[in-house]
Write a structure and sequence with these properties.
Elements lengths: L1 H33 L1 H18 L1 H4 L37 H37 L1 H15 L3 H12 L3 H27 L3 H8 L4 H37 L11 H7 L9 H28 L7
Helix pairs in contact: 2-4, 2-11, 4-5, 4-7, 4-9, 5-7, 6-7, 7-9, 8-9, 9-10, 9-11, 10-11
Length: 307
């Protein structure tokens, strides 16, 4: 009988937590919809994500094979264009719209992986350094300061020159410094939060340090991490495009917006669409991510809310 009562209490506890989660999610969605710029950014990002996931089905042509007779075909609205190739074709006769759609896959995947790894490493190290301090904090903080002294793009170029181009090496180069901002943010928040009364109360109940960090402090600072991660994703997409533009990132024939912009430089006067349209696609995505990030800051940061 006692086991059944205990099981019932556990089930009721999980139901209560689920109800709170659903309520918080519903409230967040309402605030997101009410925040016009953030909602617009979220919708545009959703379109990009769906296009990237459904690329094999929605891309009108293969992004790899071209026809030389269609070389530098202008967009459909230009004189000499074709409705079969709405955005025209590149210097090898490949459909530009299909390559832009497939390029979204690369940019979004690089952004998610680079930011995800940076968040994991930065939050883990920042939590330990901020909570325990000591020599670990001193060494890691000085190492982070050293990394911050290098301009991001120059540092990434240096790393890529050592390890060579490629997708995995690109992620490595971007995250090797990308974790520093999350480390500094979480470390600073941890130093502030660990002195508050709710942490002292958790210690008085005998809770272990890991439990206090994971279940007490991190939930109170996670909104700052989410906002920074959203904004950093746009930055990572720009960094990937910059490295691909320089020939150090994603290598042809894989479609990448940076390499597409670079390939179109030689034809700017005769075929403006080769560089311009991939650049517009990247601009729209990064701008949407920034709009969403700014909106999330307004929604999630309790210090910005007025009762």
């Amino acid at each position: 009988m006692s086991n059944q009562v205990q099981e019932r209490k556990v089930i009721d506890l999980y139901k209560t937590k689920l109800d709170i989660l659903v309520k918080d999610l519903t409230s967040f969605l309402r605030e997101l919809i009410a925040h016009r710029t953030a909602f617009l950014g979220a919708m545009i990002i959703l379109i990009y994500i769906l296009a990237a996931l459904l690329a094999p089905w929605i891309a009108p042509h293969t992004p790899f094979q071209g026809r030389l007779r269609l070389r530098l075909l202008p967009p459909a609205w230009e004189s000499g264009g074709s409705t079969l190739h709405l955005l025209g074709c590149d210097e090898l006769g490949r459909d530009l719209l299909s390559r832009i759609i497939y390029g979204a896959r690369v940019s979004l995947l690089v952004g998610v992986l680079a930011v995800g790894i940076s968040v994991f490493v930065g939050v883990a190290l920042g939590s330990i350094a901020g909570y325990y301090r000591g020599w670990f904090d001193q060494v890691l903080s000085r190492f982070a300061d050293l990394l911050l002294s290098f301009p991001y793009l120059i540092f990434a170029i240096f790393i890529m020159a050592i390890v060579g181009p490629g997708f995995a090496n690109l992620i490595f180069a971007l995250t090797l410094k990308g974790w520093v901002e999350f480390f500094r943010l979480v470390r600073g928040e941890m130093l502030s939060e660990k002195t508050k009364e709710y942490v002292d109360a958790a210690k008085a109940t005998g809770r272990k340090d890991f439990a206090i960090i994971a279940s007490e402090i991190l939930p109170n600072i996670i909104h700052s991490v989410i906002v920074l991660a959203t904004l950093r994703m746009g930055w990572m997409i720009i960094m990937e495009a910059s490295l691909s533009f320089l020939g150090l990132g994603i290598q042809p024939p894989t479609p990448a917006w940076g390499s597409m912009i670079n390939a179109g430089r030689a034809y700017m006067l005769s075929a403006w669409w080769l560089s311009t349209l991939p650049g517009v696609a990247m601009l729209a995505l990064v701008l949407s991510i920034n709009l969403l990030g700014e909106g999330l800051r307004d929604i999630l940061d309790p210090r910005l809310k007025i009762d």
